Amino acid sequence: MRVIAGEHKGRQLRPVPNRLTRPTTDKVKEALFQIIGPFFEGGQALDLFAGSGGLGIEAISRGIDHCVFVDKHPKAIQTIYDNVKALKLEEKTEVFRTDAFRAMKAAGKRDLSFDLIFLDPPYKKVSYEKLVEDINDHQLLKENGMIICEHDADEHLPEQLAGIPLFKHEIYGGTIAISIYQ
User: Does the keyword field hold Transferase (predicted)?
Assistant: First the structure.
């Protein structure tokens, strides 16, 4: 696992040391960022179910100002801290060990909103519809912001989630799908 482009291009990232987390492959990450914008001029990101933090770190490397990482697993949180520290990104990040729904509620109370929201929960264990409803309820997505859902290719996500239309859907390697809502 590595950072694909931007300020930290080529830097290695530590994976979470367990078999429960499946990091986004470099190929999928590269294709995803070609779709959502190869580079950014600032902005805020939220990486729910962050695992090693690879998607949020990639966004920062490409110009996002700040990213909030959320995961409930201690090994994932430690890995995110290690990766953030190795790249000296402490000033551009916040890391929370909590459930995604609690994190969204807390972000809403802080009046936070995001340009990019990455959703990569354990496949077929969490409802994307419920996640996006909570994003809407807490007003976490900025106008023209994007919600990026990584999911099993067999799982079909609808043309709209909580009133937000599907912008792009791609399948990679026959097993991983990315659905982007904007």
Answer: yes
DSSP 8-state class, residue 48: E
Residue 136 buriedness (CB in 10 A; 0-12 / 13-18 / 19+): middle
Residue 86: how many other CB atoms lie within 10 Å: 14
Helix or strand (DSSP H, E) at 74? helix 74-86
The β-bridge partners of 117 are: 46, 147
Is beta strand 176-181 parallel, antiparallel or unpaired with respect to 141-152?
Answer: antiparallel
Per-residue pLDDT tens over the stretch 4-27: 999 999 999 999 987 666 678 888
Task: Give me the CATH code for the 27-181 domain, please.
Answer: 3.40.50.150
pTM for the whole structure: 0.95
Q: Distance (Å, rounded) from C-alpha 109 to C-alpha 111? A: 5
pLDDT in tens, 132-158: 999 999 999 999 999 999 999 999 999
The residues spanned by each domain of the chain are 27-181
The residue among 159, 114, 157, 158 whose CA lies nearest residue 135 is 114
User: In this structure, what is the dihedral angle of CA atoms 33, 37, 43, 45, given to the nearest 10 degrees?
Assistant: -30
